[in-house]
Design a protein that fits this description.
The structure holds 2 protein chains of 2 kinds. Chain A is of the alpha/beta class. Chain A has 13 helices and 9 strands. In chain A, helix 6 links the parallel strand 6 and strand 7. Helices cover 22% and strands 31% of the residues of chain B. Classes of the chains: A alpha/beta, B alpha/beta. Chains A and B meet through strand 1, helix 1 and helix 12 of A and helix 1, helix 2 and strand 7 of B. Strand 1 of chain A pairs antiparallel with strand 7 of chain B, so a sheet runs across the interface.
Chain lengths: 298, 196
């Protein structure tokens, strides 16, 4: 087969890759050893970053893309896909991760935004992107920019699932609401939520987002993960929840099983037994405005 | 014929397989009398004539097959198995990764991620022997290839990197994702092979 007959980086390949992650758990890791633990526990992919979100909160300052050396070590350590986080709008960090061979790029509000006006033009890349969203309008704006996967933002690094629930309910509820509208009303609604009308109509026809939708930002226990699945998530991202718990190996395996059996409370009860402490949590209402990550990018 | 197709629903591209099989059954004229169901527990396999092993993460799916006590029921399944991507890895006798507990159903050796990482994933029109209607538009996503196939395995398609489509008795295994393209010729051929 001749190389010029192959097509790389198409929309179908990007969305197809995202679709293969469905029903899976994607775990934040900061080094090769954690990546191996995640893979061993049954993660479908790992997310490489410099610090997990709860440490980013503690350290303050500017949070950036991980050291390429670390990313490469993680890529070499595991056979499952490796994702990486870049700052909102930082297209050069994204170019760097693409060069390193990262399989999907997370344009993430957990890092300090590099551009307060524009997100990355994701259609210029061969690798797929995942982006955060809090409601349907935000999700569709990201998809319009080329995101192949959405993750509801939640509030990362808090170990508190309340914002993840809010954002998943927002998106699922808005899509349910579309079903009662005619085309004109949908077009009007699209204007209200600042989203392209054709994407709003596509959501109404499919009864779901046009791309895979994962849950993120505050999942700390197997029950949290299963609840997000029952609320309609296609899979979950677990950030600080694994490696800030007292027994990461056990917690990672338990969350994988809970996602797989999200509708079977007896399994969730069994895997939740004797896990040790989940990560310490934060009450959302105690966060100062400048400590809230979900409002970055819109 | 009433046909019941199961789709292994532990992780991965499950709903696309359900839709593709429903469409293929429809095109074969047995849509209304047939059913496509998800398989999560051994009891779900009862009455199934075929089982699809979807794409996803092969290490994850292999672990979940064991956890859900599905290894033996799938290994002993009397119907045909339609295995794509990660499914091709699982159905083989040999894989380049010891963590995968292969189902040992098709005598072949499979290399995971044989084309490279996601940026090397590609779409291409490939030729398939014994399939009418011209080239098949195939979608390869971090795809595996067969590097060695036993004498009883029928090779349907081969690229420079290795074999990408095979048949073995009632089973079919593919490196790529026919469930993503809307072309159901391979699904239909598989269903005809099991007697539909």
């Amino acid at each position: 087969m001749k190389l010029e007959e192959l097509r790389f980086g198409t929309e179908l390949l990007k969305r197809g890759f995202a679709s293969m992650q469905k029903g899976g758990v994607i775990m934040d890791v900061v080094n090769a050893e954690q990546a191996r633990i995640a893979e061993e526990a049954g993660a479908v992919a790992v997310m490489s970053l410099e610090r997990v979100p709860s440490d980013i909160r503690k350290m303050g300052g500017v949070a950036r893309m991980a050291d390429p050396q670390k990313v490469t070590e993680i890529i070499e350590a595991v056979s499952i896909p490796v994702m990486g986080k870049v700052r909102i709008g930082h297209f050069v960090e994204a170019q760097v991760l693409e060069t390193l061979g990262v399989d999907m790029i997370d344009e993430s509000e957990v890092l300090t935004p590099a551009d307060e006006q524009y997100h990355i033009d994701k259609k210029l890349f061969k690798v797929p992107f995942v982006c955060g969203a809090r409601d349907l309008g935000e999700a569709l704006r990201r998809i319009n920019e080329g995101a192949a996967m959405i993750r509801t933002k939640g509030e990362a690094g808090t170990g508190n699932v309340v914002e993840a629930v809010r954002h998943m309910r927002n998106i699922m509820g808005e899509i349910r609401m579309l079903k009662g509208m005619d085309k004109q009303e949908m077009t009007d609604y699209a204007r209200d939520i600042e989203a392209p009308a054709e994407l709003v109509i596509e959501c109404a026809e499919r009864g779901r987002l046009p791309v895979v939708n994962f849950s993120a930002g505050g999942i700390a226990t197997p029950s949290d993960a299963a609840m997000m699945m029952q609320l309609g998530a296609d899979g979950v991202f677990v950030g600080s929840g694994i490696f800030k718990s007292t027994n990461p190996e056990l917690m990672a395996k338990a969350i994988v099983e809970a996602v797989n059996h999200f509708n079977e409370p007896e399994v969730i009860a069994r895997v939740s037994r004797g896990l040790g402490d989940a990560m310490p949590g934060l009450d959302i209402h105690t966060l100062r405005d400048d400590e809230v990550l979900q409002t970055r990018g819109r | 014929m009433d046909v019941k197709v199961g789709v292994l629903a532990l992780q991965g591209n499950v709903s696309e397989h359900i839709d593709a099989f429903a469409l293929a059954l429809d095109r074969l004229g047995c849509g209304c009398s047939s059913a496509v169901v998800t398989v999560r527990h051994p009891a779900d396999l009862e009455g199934c004539h075929a089982l699809a092993l979807p794409g996803g993460e092969s290490t994850t799916i292999s672990r979940l097959i064991d956890k859900n006590h599905l290894y033996k029921p799938i290994h002993n399944f009397s119907g045909g198995i339609f295995a794509t991507c990660a499914g091709m890895v699982l159905i083989a006798t040999h894989v380049d990764d010891a963590r995968i507990n292969t189902l040992n159903l098709i005598d072949m050796t499979v290399d995971r991620n044989a084309f490279g990482r996601q940026r090397e994933s590609f779409e291409a029109d490939i030729s398939l022997s014994n399939i009418d209607g011209g080239p098949f538009h195939a979608i390869f996503i971090r795809a595996p290839v067969v590097t060695h196939a036993g004498a009883s395995v029928k090779v349907l398609s081969r690229l420079d990197q290795g074999i990408v489509a095979v048949e073995h008795g009632k089973h079919m295994a593919l490196s790529f994702h026919p469930e993503l393209g809307g072309d159901t010729r391979l699904h239909e051929r598989f269903l005809k092979n099991i007697g539909v």
